[in-house]
Task: inverse folding
């Protein structure tokens, strides 16, 4: 019996050791691949930015005359005014290494600024839309949220509030139109957002 137990322990230990060795080997390969790509990325020369999917803002599309007596709303408006004059690009889910490989290492700081502009945009739109919704300007909030979704935002609160509005306005079928957009998101939030849509769908049904 002791021999069987000892043999089992040895076999188990061997399997664990083999797994750990294999795991470490894979990690080493992944690290080598990463640094090889990073080295290549850092050596990539500046490339044209003509094919970037720039997001254009038209102030006419935003309710700039609403909530004029609320300082925070005025802050949101000023942010949108500023962003309307800046390049905005959504790089969510794309690594700096990939950006350098595609557009060149000398462009990386510029591209990061474009992406930071996008992050500021979708966060501002979410907060402003929530304020509009709370103040009773539901249609304006919906329009703002729909614009944000059209840019590929992965702010989960945007999808949650938009689903709530669709349900309250008796247009739950519009929730279904969000699935293709959510499923294509290149973001760690993709599954969370799809789950929000599913839960909203069930509640609306």
Result:
């Amino acid at each position: 019996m002791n021999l069987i137990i000892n043999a089992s322990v040895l076999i188990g230990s061997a399997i664990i050791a083999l797994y750990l060795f294999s795991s470490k080997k894979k990690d080493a390969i992944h690290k080598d691949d990463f640094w090889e790509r990073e080295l290549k990325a850092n050596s990539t020369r500046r490339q044209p930015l003509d094919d970037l999917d720039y997001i254009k803002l038209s102030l006419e599309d935003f309710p700039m005359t609403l909530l004029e007596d609320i300082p925070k709303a005025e802050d949101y408006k000023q942010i949108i005014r500023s962003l309307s004059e800046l390049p905005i690009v959504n790089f969510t889910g794309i690594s700096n290494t990939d950006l350098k490989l595609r557009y060149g290492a000398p462009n990386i700081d510029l591209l990061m600024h474009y992406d930071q502009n996008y992050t500021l945009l979708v966060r501002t739109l979410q907060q402003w839309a929530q304020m509009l919704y709370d103040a009773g300007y539901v249609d304006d909030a919906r329009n703002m949220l729909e614009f944000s979704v059209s840019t590929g935002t992965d702010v989960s609160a945007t999808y949650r509030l938009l689903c709530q509005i669709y349900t309250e306005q008796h247009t739950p079928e519009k929730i279904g139109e969000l699935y293709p957009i959510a499923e294509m998101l290149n973001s760690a939030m993709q599954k969370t957002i799809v789950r929000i849509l599913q839960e909203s769908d069930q509640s609306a049904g």
Observations:
- The chain is about 70% helix and 0% strand.
- The chain has a mean pLDDT of 87.
- Residues 6 and 12 are 10 Å apart (CA to CA).
- The radius of gyration is 24 Å.
